[in-house]
Design brief:
Layout lengths: L21 E3 L5 E3 H6 L12 E2 L5 H6 L11
Antiparallel strand pairs: 1-2, 1-3
Length: about 70
Amino acid sequence: MLEMRPDCERCGTGLPADQGGAFICSFECTFCAECADAMDEVCPNCGGELLDRPARVGDALKRNPASTQRYYKG
């Protein structure tokens, strides 16, 4: 199950689990669409491809809440 990190590691933008717009690599490094685009969809941490993170909604989100640990390194 994905951790569903709550923010962009590069700019700190909030990325709610129940909305689109987040991009992740295979290690779940998480970035907003604007930052992912600026990095040509390549993770600066591992060099992996950044892909759209699926949203988690409804009962699935209630049963499996998103992480609250922020990763912004600002």
